[in-house]
Amino acid sequence: MKKIGVLTSGGDAPGMNAAVRAVARTGISKGMEVVGILRGYNGLINGDIKTLDARSVSGIIQNGGTCIYTARCLEFREKAGVLKAKEMCIKNGIEGIVVIGGDGSFRGAADLSAEGIPCIGVPGTIDNDISMTEYTIGYDTAMNTAMELIDKLNDTASSHDRCSVVEVMGRRAGYIALNTGIACGAIAVITTEMPYSIDDIIAKISTARAGGKNHFIIVVSEGIGNSEAIAREIQDKTGIESRATILGHVQRGGRPTLRDRVEASKLGYYAVELLEQGIGNRVVGLKDGHVIDVDIQEALSMKKAFPVEDYKMADILTF
Ligand code: F6P
């Protein structure tokens, strides 16, 4: 291929810039022209495209967000949108595209691949909810951000003998909740993947309080919601002053951790290696620490197991 594009789509994730840089520099080192397609598939439909040279991706590996912007594109979900994008690729001489994003972005990549423009998906989402890979770009940074914020809430909870109910991101996945819960010593972690009972959590809090524990953290995943109601019920039934905090979008930004920068670099590099061979319709990911690639449809149909043993361990470690 002589000319390839890279786009970021869906929610931004720390480390996306490292992946964009890796795609640009790998492509350039192979003699390709590399263009950044701005604001996801919108940029492809509207021809919002800029050439990325080696210097234009300098100084971005350490920044959160994405320097080529991101968006969710409704028009691209329709066949007409995909055809417009295909025409734009042909007009601009773009022979292949690296799509950095989540499941929704990969559906678009499969549609465009089926229209003859090979696309490679690179998993970029803080949620780590892509089944074909054990890791998605942004996950580590988001968890560390949430951990630091929960630690701060813990200071206040312990100073005031309170219970702090903290809602972390993850619309359809409880991985951030589980790991930050373990890392912050939460008395309970509530996610959509596991059954839970508020009465059991209250009983656990009461037993721990009788044993001398004066403050409590409960981590709730966004998919559950109801953090305010959970805090109110705990306060009403235990008499422990309880507060709910929704961490929200602060978890999506910030300087990517080493892990995010390194994994994003590897995945971006490997994606270009595939395009160079004319291969499309694949998603790259990590398995046992190694980069692998899987057919997009297959990747979308896979189910990710929730680490039930870790969940049980989290329950045992805090009382
Ligand atoms: O997929 C990443 C994510 O941050 C989810 O955890 C969250 O549910 C969602 O995006 C929020 O999306 P938006 O930024 O569009 O509100």
Overview of the structural elements:
The protein has 319 residues and is an alpha/beta fold. The protein is built from 11 helices and 11 strands. The protein has helices at residues 16-29, 41-46, 79-92, 103-114, 139-160, 175-183, 198-210, 227-238, 258-276, 296-301, 308-317, and strands at 3-8, 33-37, 49-51, 96-101, 119-123, 163-168, 188-190, 216-221, 242-246, 282-287, 290-295. It has a 7-stranded mixed β-sheet with strand order 3-2-1-4-5-10-11, with helices on both faces. Helix 1 (16-29) links the parallel strand 1 (3-8) and strand 2. The radius of gyration is 22 Å and the shape is elongated. The mean pLDDT is 97.
Q: In percent, how much strand structure appears in the residues?
A: 15-25%
Q: Roughly how much helix do the residues carry, as a percent range?
A: 40-55%
End-to-end gap:
58 Å
Q: What value does the Rg take, in angstroms?
A: 22 Å
Uncertain spans: none
Bound molecules: 6-O-phosphono-beta-D-fructofuranose
Supply database-style keywords.
11 helices; binds 6-O-phosphono-beta-D-fructofuranose; alpha/beta; 18% strand; single chain; 7-stranded mixed sheet; 319 residues; 4-stranded parallel sheet
